[in-house]
User: Which sequence fits this backbone?
């Protein structure tokens, strides 16, 4: 351990004591419980991954989780396999037909998005689920596969206590407006730029 | 389903076919496999949660995961409980003594960080682990509880094939420099501002 100057230690203690007071006051001022609409957007990595991390958190607390994948059916197989360990406490629905540039068929994409949205509505109505993840819903809205006003209206009117996580780049302004918590994942640096390929356990 | 104009459908098809060509070329150009140093930083939510989502991905692929929590020992209990489902494929070490403003004791914080770093070195050396999560390590570096050059040097010299995720705000420039993938989580909107409190399954 490095030598610590007693004066520095005391400054640290005083600073942290003050920080703790501010923190405690802040925590005490938050009193409402509320099912949250959480949005993970932006061009960076981690939008879906953080949603599945929240699933883990809910499962660890004894809750159940519904997942609807709107677009990228071929992806996230690692998470799906791992979450299957939790049996019927995870209800996973891969409704998308792969990336939009794979299908190249607009009416097929629209039909798939509509089926996915119906499934999402079922899961959101089912009181068994404390958390519903609508993975890549933002993409379906961005391409107008679904009507934004209808979808955001249904999310805003979700049953009390239900947490919903919506992922995908380019979240619509109405979605941001309706959300309680919005995180934008920004890409600072990416290994693909150095020629490194997608690897199991990391990208899927 | 809305009526789709055939010309619009064809424009969509042509655009997506072109997108797929670009995508396929890009994927073909990535040929290297490499254990990645991944950094989740920034003031937004989801840094640790996305790291635990990656743990899920690794577990779903049959791998094992090591976790060292450098700072916030009292947090992330939901994830920990859920990951315990995977038995000895998850090795979880809570080494921090809570938030820095809880301990108010610099030498205790430094000692805790040093113990955590020793544990991190053990896990990184153990070939059983495909992924090691160093949760809130950036905080320990920011407060100079650990020497940045020593830590970043050890991370850069990690064994081949090992993925490491480092989380926490205010990542040091040397950490960003050494990383393969850096995501900055930006806070767009937070429900605490609306007086909503930390809730199980979401914040912990």
Assistant:
């Amino acid at each position: 351990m490095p030598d610590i100057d007693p004066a520095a230690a005391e400054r640290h203690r005083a600073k942290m004591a003050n920080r703790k007071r501010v923190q405690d006051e802040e925590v005490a001022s938050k009193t409402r419980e509320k099912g949250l609409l959480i949005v993970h957007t932006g061009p960076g990595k981690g939008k879906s991954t953080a949603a599945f991390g929240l699933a883990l958190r809910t499962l660890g607390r004894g809750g159940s989780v519904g997942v609807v994948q709107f677009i990228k059916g071929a992806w996230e197989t690692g998470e799906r396999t791992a979450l299957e360990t939790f049996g019927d406490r995870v209800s996973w629905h891969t409704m998308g037909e792969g990336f939009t540039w794979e299908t190249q068929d607009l009416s097929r994409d629209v039909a798939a998005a509509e089926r996915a949205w119906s499934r999402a509505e079922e899961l959101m109505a089912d009181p068994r689920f404390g958390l519903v993840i609508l993975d890549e819903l933002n993409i379906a809205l961005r391409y107008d596969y679904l009507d934004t006003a209808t979808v955001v209206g249904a999310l805003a009117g979700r049953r009390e206590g239900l947490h919903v996580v919506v992922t995908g780049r380019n979240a619509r302004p109405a979605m941001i407006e309706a959300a309680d918590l919005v995180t934008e994942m920004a890409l600072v640096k990416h290994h693909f730029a150095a020629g490194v390929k997608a690897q199991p356990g990391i990208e899927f």
